[in-house]
Amino acid sequence: MPLAVEQIVLRWGDLGGQWGVNRSVAQIQALLYLSEKPLTAEDIATTLGLARSNVSNSLKELLTWKLIHRVPVLGDRRDHYEAETDLWQMATKVAQGRKAREIDPMVAAINDAVASVDGQGAGISPEVRARLERLQGFVNTVDGWYQQMLGVPPETLMRLIRMGSKVVSLLKFVGPKDRGS
């Protein structure tokens, strides 16, 4: 494996731990992303010096996240794997997976808490009620924004991202009431 690829694979593995992803999973994803051809589990285990069982479990996780897929190779009955190479697709799939696992349960819990407060009425101070309602408004607004962004074509999103500082400077012309809380 070329040194530059090795360095990225190792660093991606380290970063995976910071993102809450198993190091082996992150290394395998990086290796497949940078590979010019599909690799078998055996190829991956040998290249990365990992146990075959670790590679198998990591491949299952990456398949679940839809960051890799199986591809047939003529004349070989073994499973071969390729990574998703479209960066927007990768980012979208990771965001969707994390949202489903982390954000959606939080949104549901906050909505349930507010509904419970509405049903109870007594025992909750006006300040706590106001904070819960602000929290609910915030998470539902962010959730709605996320849903809208899924429908925006990647090239449009990239233009928006590149315009970042210009958009922020335009916000100074919008009064605080118009920005929300």
TrEMBL record:
Which UniProt keywords are present, listed alphabetically? DNA-binding, Transcription, Transcription regulation
InterPro entries per the record?
A: HTH-GbsR_regulator, HTH_MarR-typ, MJ1563, WH-like_DNA-bd_sf, WH_DNA-bd_sf
Q: Does the keyword Transcription regulation apply?
A: yes
* Protein name (Swiss-Prot/TrEMBL): HTH-type transcriptional regulator
Q: Hey, which family's this protein in?
A: Belongs to the GbsR family.
One Pfam family name is MarR_2
Superkingdom is: Bacteria
